[in-house]
Amino acid sequence: MEGGDRHRTLYLKAGLVIAFLVLACQLFRLQLLDNSFKVSARNNALYYQTRYPARGLILDRNGNVLVGNKNSYDILVTPRYIKELDTAALCSALNIKPEYVRAKFQEYRMYRSRIGFRAVTFLSQVSPEQYSRFIEVRHKFPEFFGIPRTTRMYPYNAGGNLLGYVTEVDRDFLEKHPDYESGDYVGRTGLEQTCEYMLRGRKGYSIYLRDASNRIQSSYRDGEMDKPAAAGQDVVSTIDAELQNYGEELMRNKVGSVIAIEPSTGEILSMVSSPGIDVSVLGEINKHYSEIASDPFTPMFNRAVMSPQPPGSVFKLVNALIGLQEGVVSTRTEYPCHMGFTAPGIHVGCHDHKSPVDFTEAIMASCNSYFCYLLRSILENPEYSSQSEAFDQWHDYVQSFGFGTRLGSDFPSEIAGFVPTSATYDRIYGKGGWKALSVISLSIGQGELGCTPLHLANLAATIANRGYYYIPHIVRQHGNDSIDRKFRERHYTLVDTCHFEDVVEGMYQAVNAPSGSGATARIAAVDSLDICGKTGTAENPHGDEHAVFVCFAPREDPQIAIAVYIENAGFGATWAAPIASLMVEKYLTGDISRSRKWLEEKMLSTSLLHKVPASPDYVPPKKDK
User: Fold this and answer.
1) Residues near 497 by Cβ (< 8 Å), separated by ≥ 6?
2) CA dihedral 350, 356, 358, 359 (to 10 degrees)
3) How confident is the model at residue 39 (pLDDT cuts 50, 70, 90)?
4) What pTM was estimated for this model as a whole?
5) Exposed, middle or buried: residue 127 (CB in 10 Å: 0-12, 13-18, 19+)?
6) Beta-carbon contacts of residue 353 (< 8 Å; ≥ 6 apart)
7) Is residue 50 helix, strand or coil?
8) How far apart are CA 468 and CA 24, in angstroms?
């Protein structure tokens, strides 16, 4: 027993010695070789000041700055260290109201445990001038301090809806985007939202030593462990700044939109939504948000991509091409028009012009009767087993032009619009309870059709290209990267390219035919530009009709395709066609000819706001599932 006890004692002593040696070695390593725990232990005495990056610039296609940066400051505070506060003096120094201070500190009390001893943003985007006044009295508010930031500035007073705005992230946003933190800014609409991941940059920080009273003493390790901020990438847009600015001037005091596209690339040259957000308020959107949101003309609503409306007579171009493809009409086909189209129980009116008219004359004069006969021929085509089958083929043709779909643009909030199918009318009339005459309004772009101005501009680009389009897009380049490959792919319609020249001839005659010919868009003619266009007047059950015009120019090797949609403005030739032609002339020649200055002045000076119900008024039917 005694021998056994001695062995156990020896084993126990040996174990204690080994354990001591292991602990000694670990302590040696931690204290002398590994410094990480020492740094961690000192973290309570360190202050990490975030260094915010400059947001990337947004440039136009010619290198002009659309969105730049200017210096500002954010005022931060550590709520936990505030014992008492001279609210009146703080409000005077920062030019704020006492209600703002009370609301902020109520928020801090509500989230006291979450905030802890952290510094939080008290006031954002303080100008350098205001910050200088604050610095003079900062000794009265030791818990407050400023950090440099950049805010947006806009050399061109144009494109508020297009460019979008930047705002500080809120709690709802942070819950969905954990890679952001309180105090960060984010693009919420327009190009700022589209290009957020390119523009935002990467934050850095500086580390400072602080004392027990939270006062900064010095830079930690002379900045050895600081991390610099990385500025965001610049983005080159497809927009032409001068054309965008001109379009907004022409659309001032009117409700609607203008979209111009370069047909050979799908690049969006301008995107105007009117009334829109003035760029002067974009930098301080939070201060003006309530005012903008309550505006009866909904300036935050981007009509160019979010307002599905009936296309009106410009849709006759699509039906014309389908008729040629289906072989139910040729350029020699004539139909009568006696102030409209009449069938049992149906009358579709038309304006006074010669009768009968052929294919080219029907486009030139925008004859409603001709296209009623044409759609009836398409849907009653004996090549199909039923009118329902013929109608679904018609639907597929229309959709191949991009209608009824989201085109896939890189611009946010794009709406698909609506193109009916046979199932749509089966629900309305019952299966087998409808025929061609039941849907005859589709022949002139009315009925259940809904499309955005972007769809119409894309139609103009498709005809300019004689049968294909590139997905319209608004980003040309970012950093060293080019655009997504999908924007370089051609999208062909189901109509053979050989048929497009016949429609182009009709569009050319609509603008350039001599006086007395019945051409509906002669006001859009510009010497030597060979503009090809089509007027439209879209019926509106809530007020005056909408004015529509699509065109492209020149006829050969087109450089620009454009759609103008002005709500409650009446005939397309009265307002939409002049604005479109002025923009085409401005883009292709750089100026407006003396002979057309009167037209420019009329468009610039006329207000149509008094004619417009103050809200988007078209709600498309639900799409078939």
Assistant:
1) 466, 467, 468
2) 20
3) very low
4) 0.84
5) middle
6) 337, 365, 367, 518
7) strand
8) 78
Opening angle at CA 236, ends 234 and 239, nearest 5: 140
Output the six-digit token pair for 34.
Answer: 């590994």
CB 46 within 8 A of CB 114: no
CB atoms within 10 A of CB 249: 15
Q: 325 phi and psi, to 5 degrees? A: -65, -40
Task: Return the C-alpha torsion angle 402, 260, 581, 469, nearest 10.
Answer: -40
Interacting residues of 393 by C-beta distance below 8 A, sequence separation 6+: 384
SS (H, E, C) 357-407: ECHHHHHHHCCHHHHHHHHHHHHCCCCCCCHHHHHHHHHHHHHHCCCCCCC
pLDDT digits (tens, 9 = 90+) for 549-592: 999 999 999 999 999 999 988 888 999 999 999 999 999 999 99
Q: β-pairing, 235-237 with 58-59?
A: parallel
Render 204-256 in DSSP notation, one character per residue.
EEEEEEE-TTS-EEEEGGGGTT-B--BPPPPEEES--HHHHHHHHHHTTT--E
pLDDT in tens, 292-311: 777 788 878 889 999 899 99
User: SS3 helix, strand, coil % of the chain, rounded to 5?
Assistant: 40, 20, 40
The tokens describing 43, both together, are 């973290």
- Locate 18 and state its tokens: 């080994």
In the chain, what percentage of residues exceed pLDDT 90?
Answer: 60
Strand 185-187 and strand 120-126: pairing?
unpaired
CA-based torsion, 323, 329, 333, 339: positive or negative: negative
Q: How far apart (Å, rounded) are the C-alpha atoms in residues 474 and 476?
A: 6
Measured CA to CA, the distance from residue 57 to residue 161 in angstroms comes to 17
Nearest to 323 by CA among 563, 315, 437, 435: 315
Distance CA 392, CA 379 (A): 9
pLDDT tens per residue, range 454-472: 999 999 999 999 999 999 9
Task: With CA atoms as reference, report the closest residue to 209 among 39, 37, 81, 30.
Answer: 39
Burial of 217 (0-12, 13-18, 19+ CB in 10 A): exposed
In 3D space, the residue among 130, 98, 104 whose CA is nearest the CA of residue 284 turns out to be 130
Q: What digits encode the pLDDT tens for the residues 181-225?
A: 888 889 988 899 999 999 999 999 888 887 665 566 778 888 888
CA 398 distance to own-chain centroid: 24
311-334 pLDDT, tens per residue?
A: 999 999 999 999 999 999 999 999
Angle at 591 between CA 585 and CA 592, to 5 degrees: 65
CA-to-CA dists, residue 437 to 132, 323, 574, angstroms: 74, 17, 31
Q: Name the phi and psi angles at 233, rounded to 5.
A: -75, 145
The distance in angstroms from the start CA to the end CA of the chain is 90
